[in-house]
Design a protein that fits this description.
The complex is a heterodimer of chains A (about 120) and B (about 110). Chain A is an all-beta fold. Helix content of chain A is about 0%, strand content about 50%. Chain A contains no helices and eleven strands. In chain A, strands 2, 4, 5, 6, 9, 10 and 11 form a seven-stranded mixed beta sheet that branches. In chain A, strands 1-3-8-7 form a four-stranded antiparallel beta sheet, with no helix packed on it. In chain A, strand 7 and strand 8 form a beta hairpin. The model of chain B has no long low-confidence stretch (mean pLDDT about 95). Chain B has about 110 residues and is mainly β. Chain B starts with a strand and ends with a strand. Helices cover about 0% and strands about 50% of the residues of chain B. In chain B, a hairpin with a 6-residue loop joins strand 4 and strand 5. The chains are: A mainly beta (about 120), B mainly beta (about 110). The interface between A and B is medium-sized, with 21 and 25 residues.
């Protein structure tokens, strides 16, 4: 059974940092591109970042570029999102998701982890 | 970036009725790379449709997708109580990937 489990969310002050993790099981992690997507209260889903299967290429939304860093450890089946210089507008539930293949986008998602940026 | 606009914002229908959800893109979407997701409160999004019209694994055939260019539609042919959720469209043909703001479907 495919499982993705996020952790690391919490309450952080503006300007602070947080590291999210996503532990996966049930599939060959090293074969898949992975993404982070967030959902703020009352807003729609927003794509945040993606990483290729071997971790050599990443891409970010303009709103987080230069502040967030996505990485992966294929030996430990774990995905990470290092978030720094956090802003109020980064408050959201953060989901990790698997990118199945070129035509099939995000076919499995984690349950999400809440990040709240507030003083 | 491609902006996706969904309408209506909320749809309130009875069980057995047909729901038609619209997703309009600010520019033509590359290679039919348009998907639909369902999200219930407290749950992760669930992939329903990809490639504009292909149902994802395990999705009932009452869900169907259609469209091309800039106009896309998700149809739920016969609403069931468990279809109460927010439905979001997504384009994944151009970077950055973008989502619509969602349509909430309420079952009376």
């Amino acid at each position: 059974e495919v499982q993705l489990v996020e952790s690391g969310g919490g309450l952080v002050q503006p300007g602070g940092s947080l590291r999210l993790s996503c532990a996966v099981s049930g599939f060959t992690f090293s074969s898949y591109w992975m993404h982070w997507v967030r959902k703020a209260p009352g807003k729609g889903l927003v794509w945040v970042s993606r990483i290729n299967s071997d971790g050599t290429s990443t891409s970010y939304a303009d709103s987080v570029k230069g502040r967030f860093t996505m990485s992966r450890d294929n030996a430990k089946n774990t995905l990470h999102l290092q978030m720094s210089s956090l802003r109020d507008e980064d408050t959201a539930v953060y989901y990790c998701a698997r990118h199945a293949q070129q035509l099939i986008p995000l076919d499995y998602w984690g349950q999400g982890t809440q990040v709240t940026v507030s003083s | 970036e491609i902006v996706l606009t969904q309408s209506p914002g909320t749809l309130s229908l009875s069980p057995g009725e047909r729901a038609t959800l619209s997703c309009r893109a600010s520019q033509s979407i590359t290679n039919i790379y348009l998907a639909w997701y369902q999200q219930k409160p407290g749950q992760a999004p669930r992939l329903l449709i990809y490639g504009t019209s292909t149902r994802a694994t395990g999705i009932p055939d009452r869900f169907s997708g259609s469209g091309s260019g800039t106009d896309f539609t998700l149809t739920i042919s016969r609403l069931e109580p468990e279809d109460s959720a927010v439905y979001s469209c997504q384009q994944y043909g151009s970077s950055p990937w973008t989502f619509g703001q969602g349509t909430k479907v309420e079952i009376k």
